[in-house]
Amino acid sequence: xxxxxxxxxxxxxxxxxxxxxxxxxxAHCAQPGQFVMVRVQKGFDPLLGRPLAIMKVxxxxxxxxxxxxxxGTKILSSLNVENRLEVLGPLGxxxxxxxxxxxxxxxGRGITPLYFLASRFEENGIPFTxxxxxxxxxxxFMIDFLQDFPGAYFWxxxxxIEGGFCGTVLSLFxxxxxxKVLPLGTRVYSCGPEGMLKNLYQEEKMGNIPLEVSLExxxxxxFGVCMGxxxxxxxxxxxxxxCKDGPVFLxxxxxx
Amino acid sequence: MVNLAVKLGKLNLKNPVxxxxxxxxxGREIAPYLDLNRVGAITxxxxxxxxxxxxxxxxxxxxxxxVLNSIGLENKGVHRFIQEDLPFLSSFDxxxxxxxxxxxxxxxxxxxQELDKLERVDALELNVSCPNTERGxxxxxxxxxxxxxxxxxVRAVTQKLLIVKLGPEVKEWEKTLDVLENEGVDxxxxxxxxxxxxxxxxxxxxxxxxKFAGLSGPAIKPLALKMVYEVVxxxxxxxxxxxxxxxxxxxLEFLLVGAKAVALxxxxxxxxxxxLSVVEGIEKYLQDNKIxxxxxxxxxxx
Lengths: 256, 302
Prior knowledge:
heterodimer, A: Elongation Factor Tu (Ef-tu), domain 3, Rossmann fold, 2 domains, seven-stranded mixed β-sheet, six-stranded antiparallel barrel, 15 strands, globular, B: alpha/beta, TIM Barrel, eight-stranded parallel beta barrel, four-stranded antiparallel β-sheet, 10 helices, 16 strands, 22% strand
């Protein structure tokens, strides 16, 4: 376990939190798609750590961004600058990092690992287009994150909003794909609700383009001992474990 | 300097802290975070003869100070363990216990035979109490005849020390303990998780596809401690106490009621270095209380 110190805290309403944490080893080793297990508090209730994707690294620090979805993430959201957190990581297998061109499709808080990925592509001169879908006005702030990638993003909102596409990110992506011929070596990267990932995988226009998805699930340990985070492999070949075999998978390896 | 070494039957442990089966994988997974040389023993995840896929998700549900699991004994099978993990584990200076199970008596025997050949394996722990699989598994530990038969058959094929892991499904404790003593069991470990239930109110259905799941974590510690206390007072077999231990004081409670060693389960999941804190905490307790030898503390509360 490593001790990380909270350097910055931002929040958007009650539900969305971003922390900047100082922990050198994690900041230096983390790869896009990897996550950390965060102990909620020193005691034993809630008992287990929470897996949170890494959003960004900066010098000796890294950023986490999450949505409050239950008791653990709620308690974590009340932490303040200078508080310390016990963190294990970086964990898991991240995204592949050398496509010739990347299309990135994020749904809501699924933006977290994909933002890190896009930053890496930007550094390495790999062309990409980022599609972000949010549900409502409350989530529109996420579009600001994408201003770090000028000219390389599109966004959608499921509520009627001026200046953006009204609908799901999949409709946005579908419309964009319509008249495109994608070069060989293109890869699609996605993270978001399970239904969104499933529909994206089944998107006809995708043809044979490889799709990498980052899965979100409850975990017991985060490092492969408890086998609690099982997901089904295709063709009834048993299970993968999201923490160790993922959280990033080739969509075609999974049962949908 | 205090002496943390304990005798667990014929097994000499450098300290009483054991990693429980199913919470440290095959050793390799936890080794990057925890120096395995520092624990008394490691118990390898329950092995069957053939690889077994385990239960469908969801497999975990956190509750207050505990977790329900329905892993369903997923494992890579004894042969892959021997090939892939045993050489790695062999390099550590710690006792190596291997948890085994089978769908049938024959499978139990086959696994035991494979492991019996291996010098590095110190003991076999029979899982006769796991509440998680469908095929008659509760029968092994709750049915005396079934239990007697499986233990006798495994005993007949291995020279290894034999640990039997018990759990709340045991119905007739005294008779069960008599049977295990008579059949040549060397050590007992208890308790396995408590069969429990969680209802998904939104879906109005059972949370787990297999309906019941095993509850572990600090929530069960007082229950486990009572169980260990009562078993220790009845049997002459040495007992490994476990159930919700997450601190040195938790471990000391089990040792004080007479467990010769303790195993950490869920603790390893939430912090893979916690076992080391427990070892160090016990050491500090002995120092602070000027007790030179841990053995002198075991069973002080009867």
